[in-house]
Design brief:
The protein has 1 helix and 23 strands. 1% of the residues lie in helices and 43% in strands.
Length: 284
């Protein structure tokens, strides 16, 4: 009997009882049918410890909620500790202890180069208000292209209730520098309220895929190809974590020509932003 390959790009998190430590959602390259990104969200009960070795991968642990202590060692004998999520190069060991009920996102990609380990705090991140009108959103760059990593690029996007983001619809599935890079991408969604929801469309110009998904708190979408705009429902501020990796450290993308003109004629920005203020002052 031939086994059917799962082509679903929309995954839902499983619930973990309070006081327990366990993964809530996970994507491997085999499951995603791509080459680079591995992604896992974990809950950690207060006092529990999680350990990981990066082997031939680089890893960034994003603190989604809670608080933790972090220690790490690297293949060159380096070591460090702190209270925020680390970016660890290949050949590292990371030990994370939750000092409160905690959620983390473990983001990985293959690595062939040695880089220094680092803690990336709020003050180290890039902040940007992008778009205008009801397509205004806030971008927090954790590992932007300029960051000294190998493949991983990571950002957070905050979208006020009723607004669009990842707009105009854009894609990054063709290696065509400098205008477009071929990138895999994870969208991991959270909402201010657990009953929040939005809609995420993934479509290709030739119509091979055109899928609009109702996404709720804890859902994940695998973006292998195509344009992929998002809108959140009235009354529900949205958050998503983007994890990208490819053969270039670039986030260059091509807009859908049907809607590209909007990028050059944004109305005034939504005054509700920023949803989270920059630690050093106003977002740019």
């Amino acid at each position: 009997m031939k086994t059917r390959r799962d082509d679903s790009i929309h995954l839902r998190s499983r619930r973990v009882p309070p006081g327990r430590s366990a993964p809530t959602i996970a994507v491997t390259p085999a499951r995603a049918r791509w080459e680079f990104i591995s992604f896992t969200v974990r809950t950690l009960a207060k006092g529990d410890t999680w350990q990981a070795k990066t082997a031939r991968q680089e890893m960034c642990v994003v603190l989604l909620s809670g608080a933790c202590r972090v220690e790490w060692t690297t293949r060159d004998g380096g070591a460090g500790r702190g209270t925020l999520g680390p970016r660890a190069p290949r050949g590292s060991k990371v030990i994370l202890t939750a000092t409160a009920p905690t959620e983390i996102a473990e983001c990985r990609a293959p690595s062939t180069v040695d880089r220094a380990a680092a803690l990336v705090g709020p003050g180290d991140c890039g902040f940007e208000i992008r778009g205008g009108g009801n397509a205004t959103r806030q971008i927090i760059d954790i590992l932007p292209p300029r960051f000294p990593a190998d493949r991983l690029m990571i950002c957070e996007v905050l979208t006020p209730a009723g607004n669009w983001s990842s707009y105009p619809p854009h894609k990054h599935d063709t290696d065509r520098p400098p205008t477009e890079a071929d990138l895999e991408e994870i969208y991991y969604f959270r909402f201010r309220h657990p009953q929040g929801y939005g809609f995420h469309r993934v479509y290709t110009a030739d119509g091979r895929r055109d899928q609009t998904m109702l996404v709720r708190d804890g859902d994940l979408v695998i973006v292998r190809e195509g344009y992929h705009p998002f809108v959140t429902a009235y009354g529900h501020d949205a958050y998503y974590l983007n994890v990208l990796a490819g053969t270039r450290r670039s986030m260059a993308a091509s807009d859908d020509p049907q809607y590209a003109e909007f990028r050059h004629s944004w109305p005034a920005r939504d005054p509700r932003l920023p949803l989270i203020p920059h630690p050093g002052g106003d977002a740019a």
